[in-house]
Amino acid sequence: MPKVLVVDDSPSELIKFRELLESLGYEVIAAENGRDGVAMANTEQPDVVLMDIVMPGMNGFQATRLICRGEKTSHIPVIIVSGKDQETDKVWGRRQGAQAYLTKPVDKAKLFAAMRSVLSA
Length: 121
Known about the structure:
Strand order of the largest sheet: 2-1-3-4-5
Strand content: 15-25%
Largest sheet: 5 strands, parallel
């Protein structure tokens, strides 16, 4: 069962992702900010990370960069899931190492397609 780390500062978003992913058989762990997300990626070694961008302290771009370039975490694919829908955000997310960029509210089919793509790579 693939392990998914969801990093989002919104409790309601965390609940939505947990319910959706667990209903499909994924193991879900969660972090409420970028700093905790990076720490959990290092200790828990998830199969994929779903990363929000706008969070207090360390934002999702910074956390994505640390995970994607980290010695122990560079193999973990990151999918950004954000309310920010500007092309510059998408380009910047890719430059930080994200494998995909989805906007909220997330289309379930696009989410699962992105997850399948990164998990099979």
